[in-house]
């Protein structure tokens, strides 16, 4: 399935000096240069929409009625990135629903990015109203989306996850219908799909319901370089990580990992190699206590869960991960750690928005991945650094992600803040200047059907699931191996000074 020969890879390398500078570089606000006047909205996804190898940003605006594309216009020779704004989906066809999430992918295999859109009825973000799923086909000649979408006949319990079940380079979906049937929705090039119920061998009992918000992911669990599927389900209000390994091209249930008993509420799990041992870890943030006041992050690796020793303090204030709801009634925002190698030391760092324990203050934090000698089974932890503390209470950070604005391999920070009753974007540039090389890996389908127009490189659209392992040689001649996989969505983008580091420019799942 997922891995086959038709990937192309771009490796951009600069000069390689192995200077280990563990700096916490400063960030400067470059919002006016980067976004100009087009900074309203919530970031909902990243992807290269117009096939120019620059990552564009999908932004939801007008309470989820309108979807804009911020199209990256940067040339590698220019100092600053800039974006031009384009409306992809206009509210006039919204039919009294609002968009809750988008996920890019090439669902008909024509090498043009399409957009999967999930919608709910107005004002029901917090309830269990069903989700309708649509695909807006991309038009590679005009770089626009078809005005009227393809709609799924089924209503879904939650947004589906995008995976390539049958390895044909056309992404498929894993989801649960409103009736609770867990199924794969498999796409063919003729823009139709077939539904295949997920079955567990000859076991006939119903499968447990999938976790809402959807948290399943595609990653290489057993190190055979083939993507396996981790389906996250729920039982007795606890999470279960069901590992379905790929056995001769068929996803087969192999084991279920229960969440750590200490956790009572759960954020969204992530899947990264946190300690650089070439094995993907499951990273599960969560909390316990009646007000969710005791935050912790657990990591699954080598067959057991370890609790990371994180001090959720900064200055006099204590912080917690989960609590408070979205300031916007049309958008649900589960707690998520987003990863990228901020200081280029080969270990993925994270960003997250935390809430003060004592009041309703929110702040964006950088969680630096640092060694920990007293940490028992897992020798890494995270150290908190404030990125942006809301000095004005009217500016509440809501979402934070890594993004490489300058396409120079150095991660910058993209914030969405809630300001004057509306979300807006902020670009923070990192002023890292040490010599470093970076490896940017973009895994694409390589598909090009009949009409790749002249202005486009026929290289397809970002794929989900593939695992990439690579070996580099440092300036001292030692050889190192890295492994990355794009667990749950559509973009692999890797920055390495020492191999193994991962740059997370993936879709920010609003509902994940
Ligand atoms: C809105 O409804 C019309 C008519 O029922 C349908 O053709 C169109 O596809 C719908 N638009 C969306 C965005 O669902
Ligand atoms: C969700 O659905 C169940 C039954 O389908 C219902 O009992 C429950 O009240 C609903 N929850 C909300 C928040 O609407
Ligand atoms: C689309 O393709 C699939 C698989 O190739 C086939 O089973 C299906 O009948 C086709 N559907 C239409 C409407 O042509
Ligand atoms: C799959 O079936 C086995 C029994 O054959 C059962 O023990 C296991 O829990 C099932 N897995 C899931 C995910 O339901
Ligand atoms: C370390 O791992 C072992 C087995 O892998 C487990 O029994 C033990 O409880 C773990 N210790 C901690 C502190 O998590
Ligand atoms: C929240 O508490 C912190 C310290 O405990 C304080 O600095 C901050 O001003 C408080 N914020 C509000 C909005 O009261």
UniProtKB/TrEMBL annotation:
Pfam families: FG-GAP_3
Signal peptide coordinates: 1-25
Gene3D superfamilies noted in UniProt: Integrin alpha, N-terminal
Keyword field: Signal
InterPro entries linked to this entry: FG-GAP, Integrin_alpha_N, Tip
Superkingdom of this protein's organism: Eukaryota
Protein name as catalogued: T-cell immunomodulatory protein
